[in-house]
Each structure stands twice: as C-alpha cells, then as structure tokens.
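ok so i was messing around last nite and threw this chain in just to see what happens. nothing serious, just curious
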Amino acid sequence: MQSDPVREWRERIARHLLGLDFKPLSDAPFKATVQPIFQDLRIVRAAFSPGITFRDAELIKKDPEISFAVLIAQSGNIFVKHHGRDLQLGCGDATLLHSRASGNVGSPEQFSYMPVLIPHAELATRVARFDEAIARRIPRQSEALQLLRVYIRALKNGRFGREGRLTLREHLVDLAALVITPHGALGESNLSAVVGAHRHAVFDHIASHFSDPELRLSKVAQSLRISPRYVQRLLKTSGTSFTAHVTELRLKHAFMLLTAQDLSDVCICDVALEAGFSDISHFNRLFRSRFGDSPKGVRANQQAVRFAN
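result:
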C-alpha cells in the first residue's frame, strides 16, 4: 500500500505536536518544515507547500488552555479566515488568533508563518481590550512588530547569553502585547523588552552595514528612528562602543578575506576597502594591533600552512 505523506505528516506532526491540521490546495509535491525557536511560547517557523492550515472542533476541544497567537507572516499572499473575518497578510504583517475559535490560514503558493502563543491570563494583564485585535491586520511597518521580529531573530540566532529563560519569555510577551495595542511611537521606552529589542536592532544594522566606510552612529540612529545618544547608551550597556564594535567587525572580515584560499591574489588595499577601511595605513596599524601581525604577514603564514599540508 502506497504511503500518503500528507496524511502521515498531519497525524504525526501537525495534529499531535502543533495542534493544527493541513489540507493541500494543489497537486504539487507536499512539503512542510517546522523549525523550533522558543518552546515556552511555542514559537516555530512553519513552512508549507500550497494549502491551508486549520483547527477543527476536535483540535479545539483537545486544547483546554485559552491562548492567543500573534501570527507573523514569513511570506506574502497569506489568507486568514478567523473569527468571522477574512484578511490577507503580506510578508512581515501579523494578526491575532484565538485558540478557541475555528479558522484557517493558507495560501495558493508556498507559504510560511511564525506564531507566538500567549496564554490568556498573561495577555489580559497587559492589554485591556485585546479582543479588538483578533483577525485584524497588523502592518509590517508597526514599530512594535518590527521590534518583536528583531527579538525573535536574535533568539533564533542564539545571540542571548546571560538572559534567563523567564526573562526572555517576559520580553516576548511584553513585545507581543505592544504589537496588538494601539499606541504611538515607542521611541526610547525604558521597558526592558523594548530596550533589549532596540539593542539587537542596532547590532543587526551594524552587522549589515559595517563595510560601508560612510557608516556613522547618526545613520544607525536615523534608520532605527531613535536618537544617537540612545544608540550610544544601548551599546555601552553591552560593553562596547560604536567605533569599537564596527572596527572589530571590519577587522574580522578583513582577516577572513586575507586567509581565504580563493582570494589570495586580491590586493591587500582592496581587502581593506572591501572591509570598510578607507585609510590603508590606519587599517594596517589596527590589524597588527588586533592580530599581532601585518595583513601581509597573516596572508603569508596562511599560504605557508596550506603549502605544508
């Protein structure tokens, strides 16, 4: 008897572990992946071939806990039918779903989303009328939603070191509550969850732009809509400064380029420029101070090691 991959996945994974079901919408090969991110709030990145995920009466009955999910779209063209409403989510948009209400989420294309499950009791202490947000589109431009996505991305990439599990949970719930609460700009809020998310947003922006020789602290602040002084404060609490962090990233990138076998013929001046240094003499001094040898010496040593092997 030929196996049915959709049925097997539904029974073993979807209904049993995720508390949902799946119905394909095309004859395309079935694909489904689930990447766990934070077990406490059942945060996963779920991706599917064209189809519909849904909760039927049986699944709702099996789940006694009343909870709400902030569902963040990880792809575009996702259709949601829930609580008597129909809406469409673009990539990065979000909405709030009620665990005790039937409905479905799907797309005629490959799609993915990320739920953040918040127990009713925890949400009720933070948001007075959260029911008004159920099945309403929350645009990707929402500042709170952007910070929640940044925080989850940092969590996914293992960037949290000293923070305990309970602190992470509190931050995630606080940010999720802000996402579904109508409010103005968060600005430079002292709420620890917002501070933590802003800190990771700063590091993310620097990591993506450090090779730009024109990168300035003021540009980072402007991009994130916070003040330069606030950026300085966020970096200081992490034990570094803007200049020190950017320089470290540039030097590490230069070291990687200098020791790459397929880049051995690239001029050292070009390596420095590629890493974000516009002054070659300054680059040479910083590099020697950081790695104990000149860029030329590091490259020569690496080539000698390869030749010996």
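not much to say yet. The chain has twelve helices and ten strands.
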